[in-house]
Specification:
single chain; mainly alpha; Growth Hormone, Chain: A; 2 domains; 13 helices; MFS_trans_sf; Bcr/CflA family efflux transporter; xenobiotic transmembrane transporter activity; MFS
Length: about 400
């Protein structure tokens, strides 16, 4: 390590905080929806729209800041995004009307999107091979823990600070990360953008897009992220109906069950980072999703009790944790010269998948819907992983020497 580089420990802690930013921005204030409804004198649907506008900001912002960071470096776009986040969060905390609050939530999403993209692209700038896989495993673990802890912490804080206190706390967190970005983070983007030539001129956005979307391996990984997000958001959107209405759990017990199941993603992500090759993790995760989805569907058909049902969910989510960070590792390894753009596309497609799949869980009995979603996604994930392995072997046989297991 040179004087111009941050230590591994600093990057690990800093990037973990950035990775947790997205889930905290969306989930931290969820327990305060009823309070917001009373405070603004608005309909519950209007308050819930604040979550949707944030998701839109997160999806759009990643596609904007990712390519920009490939052009100008990681530090300045990240600092700009965190500044937008801090300012909009302060205005959201003080918002007198629901309309102003919704606009600020969209801007918050735009600002927070930079944290999500940079948590991945900065790691890709500094590390390759198994080191990158290890970092992506940590990011996946954080993203598994954050959605569980954010609402719980939000409920505790809301008891004495209210929903506005939660937003002022997020404002303070944004300022801390902004200060660390400006004064502590070293630029990580390699000066030479095209790693295969001596050309030091950054790729244009158009050229980067052309390279990414003409790469069948990258497209396959994008589809893998989409299908994996269908499994994740299919579970999130259907679980209240399955565990509260069908199994009759109280809100407290449902929260404990949901949190315990979500931790399985963390375990899977930790194992994923230790495997020798991301391709192996992608296949094992896909096979695990398909197998455990079959068990889950069988359990629903046989009216199994809650405990074997939860066990099947744990297997599904642990397998999901295996495959999600591994796919990100593979994509960023193959496209390090445009890691920001690649991470942005993969991050955005996750929110797109969630937005598309959520309504389908309410079209019929939730158990039937989730069984179909899990099984079809699992089967397609297995087919994609087999194609990826075959394609990589073919590329290496033709002398292209694409290595994902350094």
């Amino acid at each position: 390590m040179t004087d111009q580089q941050n230590s591994r420990l600093f990057l690990l802690i800093f990037l973990a905080a950035l990775a947790a930013f997205g889930p905290f921005v969306t989930d931290f204030y969820l327990p305060t929806f009823p309070e917001q409804t009373r405070d603004f004198g608005a309909a519950p649907s209007a308050v819930q729209l604040g979550l949707s506008t944030t998701m839109w900001g997160l999806a759009i912002g990643q596609l904007l800041v990712g390519p920009l960071s490939d052009q100008s470096g990681r530090k300045k776009p990240l600092a700009g995004c965190l500044l937008v986040f801090a300012v909009s969060t302060a205005f959201a905390a003080a918002a007198p009307t629901i309309e102003i609050f919704l606009v600020m939530r969209f801007l918050e999403g735009l600002g927070a999107s930079g944290a999500i993209v940079m948590s991945r692209s900065v790691a890709a700038d500094r590390y390759t091979g198994r080191e990158l896989g290890s970092f992506m495993g940590v990011m996946g673990s954080i993203q598994g823990i954050a959605p569980v802890t954010a609402p719980l912490l939000g409920a505790l804080i809301a008891d004495f600070a209210g929903w506005r206190g939660i937003f002022w706390l997020m404002f303070a967190a944004g300022l801390v990360l902004l200060a660390l970005t400006v004064f502590a983070l070293k630029e990580t983007l390699p000066r030479r953008q095209n790693l295969k030539t001596k050309d030091r001129t950054p790729e244009s956005v158009r050229k980067s897009a052309s390279i990414l979307f003409s790469d069948p391996i990258f497209i396959a990984i994008v589809l893998q992220q989409f299908l994996a997000s269908c499994v994740l958001f299919g579970h999130i959107s259907s679980s209240p109906f399955i565990f509260r209405e069908h199994f009759g759990l109280s809100p407290e017990l449902y929260g404990l069950a949901f949190g315990g199941m979500a931790l399985a993603i963390t375990v899977g992500a930790a194992v994923s980072g230790r495997l020798a090759s991301p391709l192996k993790a992608i296949f094992l995760g896909a096979a695990g999703i398909l197998f455990s989805s079959l068990l889950l569907a069988l359990g629903f058909a046989l009216q199994a009790s809650i405990f074997p049902t939860i066990l099947c969910y744990v297997l599904v989510l642990a397998s999901l944790g295996l495959t999600l960070p591994a796919a990100m590792t593979a994509a960023l390894t193959l496209h390090r010269a445009r890691a920001g753009f690649a991470a942005a596309i993969l991050g955005s497609v996750t929110f797109v998948g969630g937005g598309i799949i959520a309504p389908f869980t309410a079209m019929a009995d939730a158990r039937l819907c989730v069984s179909i979603i899990f099984l079809s996604s699992g089967l397609l994930l297995v087919l994609l992983s087999l194609w990826l392995s075959r394609r990589m072997r073919l590329e290496n046989a033709q002398g292209n020497a694409i290595q994902l297991d350094e």
